[in-house]
Amino acid sequence: MLQQSVKFYSALIAAGLAMANAGTAQTTSSPPRLVLQITVDQLRADLIARYSQGYGDGGFNYLLRNGAVYQNAHHRHANTETIVGHTTLATGADPAIHGMVANLWYDRKAGRQYYNVQDEEFPLLGAHGVDKDDEIDPTQRAATTDGRSPRAILTTTVSDEIADFFGPDAKVFGVSVKDRGAISMAGHAGTAYWFSKSEGRFVTSTYYRDAYPDWIGAWQDKGLVEAYAGTQWTLSQPAETYRFADLDDQPWETELPGWGTVFPHEYGPADNPYFTTFLTLSPAGDALTVDFAKTLMDVEQVGADEVTDYLSISLSSTDYVGHIFGPSSLESEDNLKQLDGQLANLLSYVDARVGLRNTLVILSADHGGAENPGYLETLGIEAQMFSFDSLDTTPGAQRLKDAFGVGRELIQNFSAPYVYLDQTLIAEQGLDADEVERAVAQELQQLPGVAFAVSSSALRRGQVADTSISQSVLRNFHPDRSGDIYVVFEPHWFIGDLDGLSVAAAHGSPWSYDSHVPLIFAGPGIKAKTVVRRVETVDIAPTITTYLGTKLPSGVSGVPLVEVFE
């Protein structure tokens, strides 16, 4: 049976590469003028269909009708967070190779947490950084410098390979509300712009530019941001058409002062310190991102000539709305309907300016998202919140103290999903680091809600079970950045407190509700079809580059998707 499986997959890969090469021969003579890669943050695969009532013809439905639709696409790494997923989409590599193992990891040399795209050598260009008093995104708040760059990404990206292959005339951009959403996809060779909540405008860093082009100031002068002052987020369609119309105020939704948990949501005055935050917690964040991207396309002449350009647009509102209200909420439902409208707006503009017949469109997501335990319990599904502090009240801490002379203090930092041990203390006590790792992992695994905990020493030696979850943890392991122990929670156990912010829903697990994402390819030569076999997000980058005929990104782990070339 094993030999048959090996032969089958070997034949499949060989056929895929052959068909990919055939596709390349067809497309490189007339490559697309634009590669448009759309990433929707926290768009779990089922949500597109779940909230489809009221969609128009030009957004999701256009892609579903005209594209190769992969209904069983998954991230195959364990830590399904924003930077991990975005960089995997951009590189076709596992985090063990591209290096972005978490939104935050612990920098042992500096003795502090490290935010994935921070870089003190490249400060923001003419802008202030994160306002830590008003920033609710705990990962951005943890950054120790305002500078930003892609230099922590250890491999090339699709955008890098496009810039290399097509030369200096290829235009490469990444746009998002989130810095990590823009930077990861723009790669090393492109230019990234993201929305600064503290500035109320799109910014970049000195890694990319020495000065802002005039068009960015002109875009800001249009006053689109300020126009939301004194207005409300209201339902975009008749209330009776919504599945969650009668469930607008669920007890687990996060109550942010001034924002509320029921419609309408007031944006408030422009001088409210949370005004720009409220924009990102609503469809307004995506609307601003799409409008900025359209202006960029117009002024920078993206897709205007025969040289292939690349534009990534990462849409963040679905993630923020999901965290605050949960994916099963009236807010998430309306956000998806408005997202559909923004996709239609964007695709219509691309069609008028470049021609969709000249554009390769890829839509996917950096990760899915879990339901709130309270919501799951309404369905009879047991779910709970995990508290890492529970270690202090279990016999495990005393057992560690009995074994090593030190107990809970062995744990220096917990940056989910990684536990970092105090290596200085271990050395001072004359302890064997590998033995301590294994012992702490064993005690963590005894905690309620922990499926298993894996030590880095076991991962380095490949001493992990041959299961899909264990392998996903191994794919997430980078020896210089990963912690000493990787903690996998049981299905439907969540960390509901993100550094002081209690959220309605979270993500970050290897379970299917976090790994399962939409994937659609649409463009020249791609036939409309539905594919139900399991594919992986590491396959996206090699599919794009093979379609274009460029080099593969340097760390590619996946293979081209054969259906794109049929």
Automatic annotation (TrEMBL):
SUPFAM superfamilies noted in UniProt: Alkaline phosphatase-like
CDD domains reported in the protein's UniProt record: AP-SPAP
Active site per the UniProt annotation: 82
Key word Amino-acid biosynthesis present: no
Record-listed substrate binding positions: 103, 178-180
Signal peptide: 1-25
Entry keywords, A to Z: Metal-binding, Phosphoprotein, Signal
The protein's name in its UniProt record: Alkaline phosphatase family protein
